[in-house]
Each structure stands twice: as structure tokens, then as C-alpha cells.
Write a structure and sequence with these properties.
Blueprint (H helix, E strand, L loop, with lengths): L12 H13 L6 E2 H8 L5 H11 L3 E4 L5 E4 L1 H14 L5 E8 L3 E7 L5 E7 L12 H8 L4 H21 L7 E5 L2 E5 L4 E2 L9 H17 L2 E2 L8 E3 L5 E3 L6 E2 L5 H20 L36 H6 L4 H8 L14 H8 L23 H11 L8
Antiparallel strand pairs: 1-3, 2-3, 4-5, 5-6, 6-8, 7-8, 9-11, 10-13, 11-12
Helix pairs in contact: 1-2, 1-3, 7-8
The chain binds adenosine-5'-diphosphate (ADP) and magnesium ion (MG).
Adenosine-5'-diphosphate (ADP) binds next to β4, β5 and β6.
GO molecular function, one term: metal ion binding
InterPro entries: Kinase-like_dom_sf (IPR011009), Rio2 (IPR030484), RIO2_wHTH_N (IPR015285), RIO_dom (IPR018934), RIO_kinase (IPR000687), WH-like_DNA-bd_sf (IPR036388), WH_DNA-bd_sf (IPR036390)
EC number: 2.7.11.1
Length: 393
């Protein structure tokens, strides 16, 4: 189980044409009927079926004949479509090792043509479970018409749009490089997640910086909602970078205060435990005996001058709309509870009793091979699908 991009170099134009046809069919079919794939791809002389066999061999599609003869994309198939697009755009030239695996993402090092190392985050919403307020079963029952392709794409788009807008407003975030489908490419952050940091020269300064970020976010109308030691990176100079934005919400969200307080609480708790910093348990509780360490004031949500909608323009400039935000909020932690309505997509769902969310798929990457590219392969690749990938050494 790995992200083996080797096959990417051997896939032909027709392979990608059929793979794209399956993707298109999945807009309204969980399993795309083979003849529909054939119709969309439009290859002559039954070419589609031969190509499907090849895609199946490479585990880029999954065959399902339980109801009818049909196909769906695997994660790997979707990964290939995204990576291919990024390669064609000249953004990515090589895929390297996996540097992170989250519940809902896989993170890889990638290289640009000039050798710059960047980070590629592949969103996998629906892989294990949602960070949903509701249980997975509930989710599956009510909302499975949103398939993982759609949700993962939305999560990536949201992450990209927020990263870009936050960066433009001077927040310490990775540079948002590009985004395609469920994939975000960003700059590599030097340093380590805070959770791995055992010692700091100036823990109270770092804490102050981090708390300052939570406040500044709120002033810009935003709450991170997953602000913890896993999503804060620290470099050797104790500079802070925040990452991981798919669950951010607006300060106008009805649970905004709770999410804000939870983010703050998380940070204070971690610092107090790991670096022995004292802090006020709550706004009115204050332990005098620990006051020898400089107190860092706990921000209160109500006292922050918040600017709602401030980033809306920038976000929609990246193609992330209010509707997208509403959609994604229904599924990830920080989001609203499911609406109790019979909206059109609920009705649609009832018609689609066979829909389901991907469980762990055999194509999900767990570790990765470096691309070791021989010249011959490289030429083949360039000829067949415009992949030009540099040597890895
Ligand atoms: P998840 O949503 O799965 O938690 P994250 O965006 O938090 O994904 O990334 C998971 C891990 O990958 C991080 O804790 C960090 O170690 C690493 N990582 C993510 N983005 C970067 C980056 N831009 N630079 C360096 N490491 C990163
Ligand atoms: Mg994270």
C-alpha cells in the first residue's frame, strides 16, 4: 500500500482520457456504468474496455458488478489525475517520501522542476471517519450522497483558499502554491510540529505569539478550530507557522465562542503541561501560588474586535464560495450539526441506497518509493503523457 507514481509515466493519453471519464461519471454515479464511461471517453473500436483493464491492473479504478457492470475511481486514480494536472502545469516534477499521515490526509514531499522541495497534501475526507459532531453511522445515513471525491476536493480548495488569504494578510502559514482536485501544494515549513518539541528557549514568548495568532485570526473574522500542538510548527529560531485549515469557521458561527475558547484552552493546557507555564484556569480563577512565572493573559472572545466577512473576498477569489463553506461545515468538526430538512440532496440520497463512503482503500498510500527515473523512462513519459520528471539523486 503505497503511492506508487511509477505507473504515471507509462499511462497513455487514452488511459487518462478514460480515467477522466470515470471521474466525470462519478459526479452523479457512485459506480459509473461501463457504457457511460465508454460514451464519455469516446474512444473508437471498444478502446475504452481495453483501457479500463489497464487502469484496473494499476488499481486506478475499482470494478463493481454487484448491481451492474461499473467502475469507480480509487484514491490512487484520483491522486494520479491531480498529480498529472500539477505536472502538466509545471508545478510538480517529482514525488518524494511521505512525511505525514493524518486521519484525513496524506502528506508528501514533492519537488519542482528547479529542485525546490515542497509539500503536497492529499485530502482523504471520508477515509476513516469524519471529525463529525455526529457519528459516522449518522453521517452515512443522512449524507452519503456527498461522496469522498467531492468532500476531499472541497477540503483541499478550502485549505488552499485560506492559506492564500491568510498569507496575504501576513499570517505565518505555508505559501499556497497550487491546488488541484483533492490536492494542495504548499511550501515546506522548516521545523517540527510543536508536539515533538521538548524544550524551548522562550516558552512564554512562543505561547504569547501563538495566543496572539488566535486573537488576530478572530479579529480577521476566523477561528481555526483545530489549533493545537499538531498544527503548529516551530523552527530552530522558535518561529511559529500554523497549518491545517479545512475546519476553520467564521466568528459569526453560532458556536464560535466555544471553538475559540477550545483553541485557546488547548494551547494553554499544552504549554502548562509541557513547559510548566502557569495559567489561569478560567477568566476568574487565578492561582496566586504559581504567579512567579509571568502570566499570559487569556483572551476572551467577547472582548475581541472582530471583523466578520473580512476575508470573504479573498476566499472567493480562489474559487471557494460561501456555499462551499456551508457544505463543508456540515461534515467536519467545527461545523454545524446536520440540518433537519428534506433538502433536494436528501431526496436524491434516498434514491441512491447504494451510495457509500469509501472505507480504507487498498490504494491508499502508506509509504512511498522515491522516483528513480531512468532516462529511457523519462522519454517514454514525456512522449506518452507530458510527464517530465527529474532524476532523483
Ligand atoms: P492533517 O489534516 O492530516 O492533520 P496536517 O496539515 O496537519 O494534516 O499535516 C500533518 C503533518 O504533516 C503535520 O503535523 C506536519 O508534520 C506535516 N506537514 C503538513 N504540512 C507541512 C508543511 N507545509 N511543511 C512541513 N510539514 C508539514
Ligand atoms: Mg493536522
Amino acid at each position: 500500500m503505497k503511492l506508487d507514481v511509477d505507473a504515471l509515466r507509462y499511462l497513455s493519453k487514452d488511459d487518462f482520457r478514460v480515467l477522466t471519464a470515470v471521474e466525470m461519471g462519478m459526479r452523479n454515479h457512485e459506480i459509473v456504468p461501463a457504457e457511460l464511461v465508454d460514451r464519455i471517453a469516446g474512444l473508437k473500436h471498444g478502446g475504452t474496455y481495453k483501457v479500463l483493464k489497464n487502469l484496473l491492473k494499476h488499481k486506478l479504478v475499482h470494478h463493481d458488478s454487484s448491481k451492474y457492470d461499473g467502475f469507480r475511481l480509487t484514491y490512487l486514480g484520483y491522486d494520479f489525475l491531480a498529480i498529472k494536472a500539477l505536472v502538466n502545469r509545471g508545478v510538480v516534477a517529482a514525488v518524494g517520501r511521505q512525511i505525514g499521515v493524518g486521519k484525513e490526509s496524506d502528506i508528501f514531499e514533492v519537488a519542482a522542476e528547479d529542485g525546490t522541495i515542497m509539500v503536497m497534501k492529499l485530502h482523504r475526507l471520508g477515509r476513516v471517519s469524519f471529525r463529525a459532531v455526529k457519528s459516522k453511522r449518522d453521517y452515512l445515513k443522512h449524507r452519503s450522497s456527498y461522496n469522498w471525491l467531492y468532500l476531499s476536493r472541497l477540503a483541499a480548495l478550502k485549505e488552499y483558499a485560506f492559506m492564500k488569504a491568510l498569507g496575504e494578510h501576513g499570517f505565518p502559514v505555508p505559501d499556497a502554491v497550487d491546488c488541484n482536485r483533492h490536492c494542495v501544494v504548499m511550501s515546506l515549513v522548516q521545523g517540527y510540529p510543536l508536539v515533538q518539541v521538548k524544550q524551548l528557549q522562550n516558552p512564554d514568548e512562543v505561547l504569547e505569539t501563538i495566543v496572539g495568532l488566535v486573537v488576530r485570526l478572530a479579529e480577521h473574522g476566523l477561528i481555526h478550530c483545530d489549533f493545537n500542538e499538531f498544527n503548529i510548527m516551530i523552527d530552530d529560531n522558535e518561529q511559529v507557522t500554523m497549518i491545517d485549515f479545512p475546519q476553520m469557521v467564521s466568528v459569526s458561527h453560532r458556536n464560535a465562542k466555544m471553538y475559540f475558547d477550545r483553541d485557546v484552552e488547548c494551547i494553554f493546557k499544552f504549554f502548562s503541561k509541557r513547559f510548566n507555564l502557569s495559567y489561569q484556569e478560567s477568566e476568574d480563577e487565578y492561582d496566586e501560588t504559581e504567579a512567579d512565572v509571568e502570566e499570559i493573559e487569556r483572551p476572551s472572545f467577547s472582548s475581541i474586535a472582530k471583523t466578520t466577512g473580512f476575508l470573504d473576498k479573498e476566499l472567493s477569489a480562489s474559487g471557494f464560495t460561501r456555499k462551499d463553506q456551508d457544505d463543508i461545515e456540515k461534515f467536519i468538526e467545527g461545523g454545524t450539526e446536520q440540518k433537519d430538512t428534506t433538502s433536494s440532496d436528501d431526496e436524491e440520497l434516498e434514491d441512491q441506497e447504494h451510495t457509500h463512503i469509501e472505507a480504507t482503500d487498498d490504494s491508499v498510500a502508506e509509504n512511498i518509493d522515491f522516483l528513480d527515473l531512468e532516462d529511457q523512462k523519462q522519454e517514454d513519459a514525456a512522449a506518452s503523457c507530458n510527464v517530465s520528471i527529474q532524476n532523483e539523486d
